[in-house]
C-alpha cells in the first residue's frame, strides 16, 4: 500500500475509493486549509525516497513518542501508552517503515490505536496492519472523515476504556469527536490538540480551528472540563515533541479554561 495517496498538508492517507485528486476533504473543511501551492499529494514510497524516516524516543515523564523526521505535514508525534493488555498508540503519523515497526516492537509492540481527531489520522490503517490488524478507535461523531477502510472501531458516548487503565474521553473540542486519553498509571491525559499545550507550557488552549484562528465555543469547553473532572491527572501530553505540562496539569487546565473564557466576554 506504499502508493496510496497522502495529503501533503494534513498528512492523512486516503484509500482508493475515497480519493479525489482535486481536493483533500479534510483540508477543504474550515478547520484546516489547502496548501498555498494548491492540493498536493505524496505516498509512503515518495516520503521514503525524499529521506523521511520514523523516530521513536522518550517523551518525559514516562512515555515514548513516535514521530517523523524531517517533519511531514502538521508535524505531530504520537504516543506509546503502556499498560495491562498491551500498548496503545494514541494518535498517529503519516509515515511508517520497517525500522520504526522494529523500534516499536522493542517497546512491546501495539495492541490498539486511538485517534484524537481527523487531522491526526495519518497512516493509521498502515499502522494497524503492521501490528496485526489491531483496532483503531475513532469516535463515531467523526465517521465522515475516515478516508480509508480497515479495522476502524467507531465508538459512541462520552467515555470508553479500550484497555485496562487507558480510557478515551470524548471532549468534543476542535471536532465533535475530539478525544483525549486518560492514562491512569501515569496520572496523565494525552490530548493531541484537543487541549493543546502552548509555548508557555504552564498552560493549554482550545480552538475550533488552529490555522484559521477560529475560537472554540464556551459551551464546548465547559462540557469538556466536566467530562475530565472525575479523572485524576498531574501531566498533560500535547500533540508535539516537548509540548508537555509536566506537573499540576489539572489545575493548569482549569486555569487555562478560565483565562480563555474570560477573553470571550
UniProtKB/TrEMBL annotation:
Ranges where the Metallo-beta-lactamase domain occurs: 75-240
Superkingdom classification of source: Bacteria
InterPro entries assigned to the protein according to its UniProt record, in alphabetical order: Metallo-B-lactamas, RibonucZ/Hydroxyglut_hydro
Protein's UniProt name: Metallo-beta-lactamase domain-containing protein
Source species: Catenuloplanes indicus
Species classification: Bacteria, Bacillati, Actinomycetota, Actinomycetes, Micromonosporales
